[in-house]
Amino acid sequence: MHPKIISWNVQGLNECNKRLRIKALLRMWRGDVVCLQETKLRSIDRSIVRSLCGCSYVGWSYLASVGASGGVLLMWDKRVMEVLEECIGDFSVATMFKNVEDGWVWAFVGTYGPNVDRDRRRLWEELAGVYSLWDVPWCMEGDFNITRFQSECSGQYRNSVAMDEFSKFIFDLNLMDLPLVGGEYTWSNGLVWSKLDRFLVSPEWEAHFPEVCLKRLP
Q1: Is residue 126 annotated as involved in ligand binding?
Q2: pLDDT tens digit sequence for 11-42
Q3: 60 CB contacts (<8 Å, ≥6 apart)?
Q4: Angle (CA) 81 21 143, round 5°
Q5: Per the database record, which ranges form the Endonuclease/exonuclease/phosphatase domain (predicted)?
Q6: What is the bridge-based pairing of β-strands 187-188 and 176-178?
Q7: Mean pLDDT over all residues of the chain?
Q8: 141, 137, 215: which is closest to 183 by C-alpha?
């Protein structure tokens, strides 16, 4: 099987009308795993999940926002995925999945990264720690809030230490930075465009899904 993964920085789930619009789109896209970043919600209960996903077979886990900043909601179809374990950190929600159809076990982590360099180092440590917990193929995705190369940010002319540390993290964990379909950049404020969102996978994960096509929603 090839699970359909949807990743989306929704920039807040506080408004009922916005949740209804997201629900309509998720129903059309029919994702097996859905990761929503920047929920801006301190708590998420079943009523909020049902307002986003009408499926009664939905499983879910979440990272609370800090004030009105951040937050991650991970949802999955329990008819497709069984969760064996989960780990919620300061910046991420990680789960170990078992495919119902073929029994294949793999791990997924959804991330919303910080904007401060010292906190970014905590993110790399957190993800490396979770990665060491489960000896299975990995898929890490989300809004990391940082680019890797100067070409990924319009108007940026030199690499920063934080960018180098991001690349080192990917190299140390032997992850593959998969290309995204649908545009060179994933974020813009109208003046600056950047690639902040990525899917990072282990070679074993990529080998299991060699024809995977990934699209990050704006």
Answers
A1: no
A2: 999 999 999 999 998 888 888 999 999 999 99
A3: 44, 49, 73, 74, 75, 76
A4: 60
A5: 6-212
A6: unpaired
A7: 87
A8: 215
3-class state of residue 38 by DSSP: coil
Q: CA 44, CA 60: separation in Å to the nearest integer?
A: 10
Give yes or no for a contact between 32 and 2, defined as CB atoms under 8 angstroms apart: no
H helix intervals, the chain: 16-29, 46-52, 117-133, 161-172, 203-208
Instruction: Answer for the pair 195, 186: CB distance below 8 angstroms, yes or no.
Output: yes
Could you tell me which residues are beta bridge partners of residue 77? 58
Given the structure tokens 């919620």, which residue do they identify?
88
State how far the Cα of 101 lies from the Cα of 87, in Å rounded to an integer.
24
| Neighbour tally for 213: CB within 10 Å | 11
Neighbours of 146 (CB within 10 A): 22
Q: What share of the chain is helix, strand, coil (3-state, %, to 5)?
A: 25, 30, 40
Give me the domains of the chain, ranges plus CATH numbers: 5-208 (3.60.10.10)
User: Using 50, 70 and 90 to split pLDDT, how confident is the model at 105?
Assistant: very high
125 annotated ligand binder:
no
Q: How many residues does the chain have?
A: 218
Residues 6+ away with beta carbon under 8 Å from 34? 5, 6, 8, 26, 53, 74, 75, 76
